[in-house]
Amino acid sequence: MMTALLRWFDRTILELGREMRLSYLPPLMVYVAAGVSGLTGIVGTFFVKDYLGLSASFLAALGFWAGIPWALKMPIGHLVDLLWRHKAGLVYLGASLIAASLLIMIGLIGNPTAMRQVMSAEAWFVLSALLAPIGYVMQDAVADAMTVEAVPRLDEDGNPFPDETVRLMHTTMQMLGRVAIIGGTVLVSLANVAMFQGSETLPEADKVAIYVHIYELALLIPLLSVSGVLLAGGLKRREARRLARLGHDAATIDRLVHAPEQATTPNWWILGGSAAFVALTLAVGLSGLGYGQELIFGASFVIIGVMIFRLLRELSDDARRTLLGTIIVIFVFRAMPGPGAGASWWMIDELGFDQSFLSRLDLITSTLTLAGLFLFRRFMAEKSIAHIVVFLTVASTLLSLPILGMFHGMHEWTAAATGGLVDARFIAIANTALESPLGQVSMVPMLAWIANSAPSHLKATFFAVMASFTNLALSASQLGTKYLNEIYTITREVRDAASGAVTVAANYAELGQLLAMVLLLGLTLPLLAIATTRLLGLRSA
Fold first, then answer.
1. Where are the membrane-spanning stretches (predicted)?
2. Residue 178 and residue 386: Cα distance in Å, rounded?
3. pLDDT in tens, 495-534
4. What is the rounded average pLDDT of the residues 258-278?
5. Which has the closest alpha carbon to 464: 307, 336, 331?
6. Cα 90 to Cα 88: distance, rounded to the nearest angstrom
7. 427-431, long-range: CB within 8 Å, 24+ apart, which pairs?
8. Do residues 132 and 84 lie in contact, with contact meaning Cβ atoms separated by under 8 Å?
């Protein structure tokens, strides 16, 4: 038994460490910055709840607009392929936008009076919420390209690596990328636990000071991603010197270090379709047209679908069927709606979950998600996306039941039966501990398949188009969340900032029906998508 456990630990944990290379570090630094981006999440939740009069459906709609930049990852990724030598500039631009978003929130929380003299607090918040994802998508597109670049082509003696070794290195790189992102969330959770320790007893002014300090700490995020790009430049120069010592000429060194194996030419379908998408998004967004979000989503779906069709022509017939089946299953799985902000408000108001407890809950989530990546490493490598999604769908449904049960008073019954031990917080922690390891399991196999199977001169483009499609699923999720919040109305108490009078009363009566509908949709639709791909004769990675 002990021998088998040690063998599993060696294959699952130690083997990943042995496969780590210094060249993997630059993209991992950018991915860590993406993980650390959640540092302000708890602050944002409480700030919106306590200081802004935004409804749950409006926040879901804002989530839709904030997700639109991720659909623009498609032209950005292609731009990375076209400007391979100069892609670091996109990271610098993205870092600037992220810093601007954070500075807005620092001013809005720390000096709201001065900020309101320019625009309303709600308008500033919306601007900040839209700037940040544009910055992150730019950095993410470059990081994806850097993961391909980070896998070396030649060994220490200057000989090409075998294909099997290259495939293993790509899988390891993508796995480490997920580890870096989740590792960033662990760091965030630790910081929040430390910052919010004992905050439940502090006066409001001291809580606001903590909020400001957390946003100030978040300014390290753009510095981290920029540092990753600078390190990548240094490693390239070192590799060029190594190849020169091995006797390679300048042209070969330039091809191996700075350029892809095949030159990338502009794909006008991608660039033209993306330009049409941007124009349509801006026109509809600024016009205030009814059903604008639905129109943009439909147009985005068509444009990205055409881009995928064009890119599928670059693959073999078997690879086309595999990729098409994979993205259908992943899209539906990620498009499932959630309960929205109302569920968080209910936990804060009715269950008494404060900043300190939520930060500890986030720490548990992040730590166990990171552990889950290692725990399910072989499962992800050996099972198809369809098998993984079936497992995740059933598991997620079962793990959603305790929250629905608590709405109907389950925690009161369990607390009474256990002398107060199994209360709402105990159930939330236990549920989080079980659900957290499942968070990132579905994406790693698809990313590894793209890294290994996409044409070498279109790696970033393939990553970007597939990411745009799967991120479009998150926009569909936000639309579904908005619709459900319009059907089942959830409101928290809103007070006038000047008089303190209640302008909107708290009402969580329909939350139970909302949670039940989310659970039902999340169970049935992914399984139906898998069955449909099987009937169409499609495979999954």
1. 28-48, 54-76, 88-109, 175-196, 208-235, 268-289, 295-312, 324-345, 357-376, 388-407, 514-536
2. 20
3. 766 666 777 788 888 999 999 999 999 999 999 998 888 8
4. 68
5. 307
6. 5
7. 427/402, 428/347, 428/351, 428/353, 428/361, 429/361, 429/364, 430/402, 431/399, 431/402, 431/403
8. no
Helix, strand or coil, per DSSP, at residue 351: coil
Q: What is the DSSP letter of 429?
A: H
- What is the residue type of 413? W
Rounded distance between C-alpha atoms, residue 383 and residue 391, angstroms? 11
The dihedral over CA atoms of 24, 28, 29, 31, expressed in degrees to the nearest 10, equals 160
- Contact between 64 and 479 under an 8 Å Cβ cutoff? The reply is yes
CB 423 within 8 A of CB 352: no
Report CA dihedral (48, 53, 56, 58) to the nearest 10 degrees: -100
pLDDT at 356: 77
Q: Of 277, 265, 334, whose CA–CA distance to 306 is shortest?
A: 277
C-alpha separations of 484 from 20, 288, 351, 417, 477 in Å: 45, 22, 22, 35, 11
Q: pLDDT tens, 216-252?
A: 888 888 898 888 888 887 887 887 787 778 777 777 7
Which are the contacts of 510, defined by CB distance < 8 A and separation ≥ 6? 488, 489, 490
DSSP string, 282-339: HHHHHHT-TTHHHHHHHHHHHHHHHHHHHHHTTS-HHHHHHHHHHHHHHHHHHT----
Other beta carbons within 10 Å of 241: 11
In angstroms, the CA 149 to CA 155 distance is: 15
Q: For residue 386, what are the CA distances in angstroms to 222, 270, 356, 372?
A: 36, 29, 38, 19
In angstroms, how far is CA 33 from the centroid of its own chain? 12
| 416 vs 519: CA distance, rounded Å | 27
Sign, CA torsion 225/227/229/232: negative
Tell me which DSSP letter residue 60 carries. H
Element (H, E) at 534: helix 511-535
Question: Is the pTM higher than 0.70?
Answer: no
Is the distance from CB of 221 to CB of 33 less than 8 angstroms? yes
Burial (Cβ within 10 Å: 0-12, 13-18, ≥19) of residue 168: middle
DSSP letter at 494 equals: E
Asked if residue 94 lies in contact with residue 225, where contact means CB atoms within 8 angstroms, the answer is yes
Q: Is the Cβ–Cβ distance between 36 and 221 less than 8 Å?
A: yes
Cα 115 to chain centroid distance, Å, stands at 30
